[in-house]
Design goal:
By secondary structure, this protein is an alpha+beta fold. The chain contains 23 helices and ten strands. The strands form three sheets. It has a four-stranded mixed sheet with strand order 1-4-5-8. The protein has a four-stranded antiparallel sheet with strand order 2-3-7-6, with helices on one face. Helix 3 (57-73) packs parallel to helix 6, helix 6 packs antiparallel against helix 7 (129-141) and helix 20 (493-517) runs antiparallel to helix 21. The structure holds flavin-adenine dinucleotide. Flavin-adenine dinucleotide is lined by residues 137, 170-174, 179-180, 204-206, 250, 253, 256, 258, 418, 421-422, 425, 427-428, 431, 525.
Length: 633
């Protein structure tokens, strides 16, 4: 029997890039704060005044019931202990309508706004982050969202009521050999009479071991009548030939029902294709435009928890004659936790409300919040562990056994870590956002730096670029930040002036980078990462200023002011590092590390065992494993 291995599906960097590029949404029909920001324009008019939430009485009632249910019926510690969300919690959440939060009311869902949905995730996830991950994977990337955006009426009628009633869904893209690079996909959907046959193995599907409806990404081979390409299918989790071969276990999120799923000759009918053949990745990316907001909702949840525990503990614990919270070294951590929580929540709420009122394109903002939220929540939780001292490292059960509050800061740290990896790792988010940040430059000057472009196209591009840059570059010289603008923001005006000037500088740095490295700019990942991180900070500054001004509350103005001061310090460091860094030396040393030149440094330890493969290979064919599908009662 043929063994499919990583090396058998070699894909060049260019092919991988082409697949990603083909999936990119290229159209911009609505204004985008993020896009303008990277062009040097701080468009406060797009985010100020702070939008009005659209919650109605029904959603308020739902939030109350959810609060009541998760407070009284979800035992987060038990989920951690048993590594399992109990059946009755699935049932309780289903009865409340939690599996239909994002599904239209006409299909039996609650039809919540993005804002209410994220608030619900923040609330439910605070009992145990596995609950948040379950609900968010189900509706942000699972079947409901792609069907809402790309499904036919028949598909919506057939599947959405089942999901709204509590059936669980999952999203299956990753494979042993497909992580960040979908071009290597090897799960196939071969056209047959009336549909397709699915074959292959998918890895790490969240909810995979309980889901009865799956979104599966599979490669349709090109053939007569089939344009082929990566295609999205709705597949029944209990269909013949679907086997849950493993339930995976992780550093954190112990309650996650995450699977290795094998497909062997699974028949899917033509009407189970979502969208069109070859559109799979585009559907996945478009789904994530707003789907990405759910992950930072979990990060906000974690940050609020850290703030609560950090405050309580630092007020109570006395060492060296003072509350620990009054020692400057701890005060600065508490201030970071509080200000960052405010920053993250402001970015998230703003992005949700911009998505809800549908006037703006929020794809860059959502990506920035995911990036910023996942990175900063990790730091926040790490600081909480430090503030809690030894108790930060102790498990909740162990604390409780000694008669102390069962506050598992270590669990939170473990549960949070994955947010920097899934739904686009930080490195991939940097590239994805950077691609949008340089899009205008590529569209006017791309042909100049394209080695394959013929001379006539290059000449045309030269003219186009000359026209664009003659108009655009002067706009980067002065702006409201130069002339004492933003006065209506009171004490926060100085921060917006800073952000406006920094946005213009950022655009100039980006232009300089393009001019210096041209077509090789894409390889300057460290530079691009910093450009994006600066963009995220500036978006955060703009969001907190808009929110605090709207609140009119002194305590919010204080939090916003401090957040902006801390953020500006980070921007200064990032901006300096754009041109003063060790990137070239790092790359050279990494090459040497890869070649084994520094192997001597690994001596003096017991080396890790050699057995096992780096990436598991799998054999096509029927499963030889018991089906570990967990049937929910
Ligand atoms: C708990 C958990 C739940 C998950 N849930 C799901 C799910 O529901 N559905 C699903 O389909 N998948 C899921 N995944 C998979 C997850 O999305 C992937 O782990 C993620 O996409 C990264 O892929 P990878 O782990 O193969 O890393 P790799 O792609 O192998 O990357 C390894 C490292 O290289 C970096 N890297 C890769 N390519 C580049 C590049 N071009 N430039 C710079 N750096 C790069 C990465 O950022 C990373 O640091 C889950 C994973 C886990 C652990």
């Amino acid at each position: 029997m043929e063994v499919v291995t990583a090396t058998q599906r070699e894909v060049t960097a260019e092919q991988a890039r082409n697949v990603a590029e083909a999936a990119r949404e290229t159209e911009w029909h609505k204004p985008s704060f993020g896009k303008q920001l990277f062009l040097g324009k701080l468009r406060m008019d797009l985010i100020d005044p702070w939008p009005e939430p659209s919650s109605d009485e029904d959603s308020r009632r739902f939030m109350e019931s959810l609060r009541d249910y998760v407070t009284n019926h979800v035992d987060g510690a038990q989920i951690e202990r048993d590594a399992k969300i109990p059946d009755e919690v699935f049932r309780g959440l289903a009865e409340l309508g939690c599996f239909g939060m994002k599904i239209d009311t006409k299909y039996g869902g609650l039809g919540l706004s993005n804002l209410d949905y994220c608030k619900a995730l923040t609330l439910a996830g605070s009992t145990n982050p596995s609950i948040g991950a379950l609900l968010s994977a189900h509706q942000s990337i699972g079947v409901p969202q792609p069907l809402k955006l790309f499904g036919t009426d028949e598909q919506k009628q057939k599947y959405l009521p089942r999901l709204a009633a509590g059936e669980v869904s999952a999203f299956l893209l990753t494979e042993p050999d497909v992580g960040s690079d979908p071009a290597r996909m090897s799960v196939t959907a071969t056209p047959v009479e009336g549909g397709y046959r699915l074959n292959g193995v998918k890895l790490w599907a969240t909810n995979g071991s309980v889901a009865t409806l799956l979104v599966v990404m599979a490669l349709v081979p090109r053939s007569e009548g089939h344009r082929g390409g990566i295609t999205a299918f709705v597949v029944e989790g209990t269909a013949n030939g679907v086997t849950i071969e493993r339930r995976n276990a992780f550093l954190g999120l112990r309650g996650l029902e995450n699977s290795v799923t094998r497909f062997h000759d699974v028949f899917v009918a033509t009407d189970q294709v979502i969208g069109k053949e070859g559109q799979g990745l585009k559907i996945a990316l478009t789904t994530l435009n707003t789907g990405r907001l759910s992950l930072p909702a979990m990060c906000v949840s974690a940050a609020k928890w850290c703030l609560n525990v950090g405050r309580g503990w630092s007020n109570h614990r006395v060492q060296w004659g003072r509350k620990v919270g009054e020692h400057e070294a701890v005060s600065t951590k508490l201030a970071f936790i509080a200000a960052t929580t405010y920053g993250m929540e402001s970015m998230l709420d703003l992005s949700c409300m911009l998505a809800d009122d549908d006037r703006n394109d929020i794809r860059i903002e959502a990506a920035l919040v995911k990036l910023f939220g996942s990175e900063k929540a990790w730091l926040v939780a790490d600081e909480l562990v430090q503030v809690r001292g030894g108790r930060g490292y102790e498990t909740a059960d162990s604390l409780a056994a000694r008669g102390e509050k069962p506050l598992g800061a270590e669990q939170l740290l473990r549960d949070l870590r994955i947010n920097r990896i899934f739904e686009g790792s930080t490195e991939i988010m940097h590239l994805l956002i950077a691609r949008e940040a340089v899009d205008q430059h590529l569209s006017v000057a791309g042909d100049i730096i394209d080695p394959k472009a013929p001379p006539a196209r290059k000449a045309k591009a030269m003219l186009r670029a000359a026209g664009f840059y003659a108009r655009w570059l002067p706009t980067l010289l002065v702006g409201p930040g130069t002339f004492g603008g933003y006065r209506k923001f009171g004490r926060l005006a100085q921060h917006l002036r800073y952000a406006e000037r920094a946005a213009r500088r950022l655009a100039r740095h980006t232009f300089r980078g393009m001019a210096t490295w041209q077509g090789k700019m894409e390889y300057r990942q460290a530079f691009l990462g910093r450009v994006v991180d600066i963009g995220a900070e500036l978006f955060a500054v703009a969001a907190v200023c808009s929110r605090a001004k709207a609140s009119g509350k002194a305590e919010e103005m204080e939090l916003a002011d401090l957040f902006c001061r801390q953020s500006r310090q980070r921007v200064i460091v990032l901006e300096h590092a754009l041109w003063h860094n060790t990137d070239a030396e790092d790359v050279a040393l990494a090459k040497d590390v890869l070649s084994g030149r520094h192997e001597f440094l690994e001596q003096g330890i017991v080396a890790p065992p050699e057995e096992g493969e780096w990436v598991a290979t799998w054999k096509p064919g029927p499963s030889t494993e018991p089906n570990l599908m967990r049937k929910l009662s």
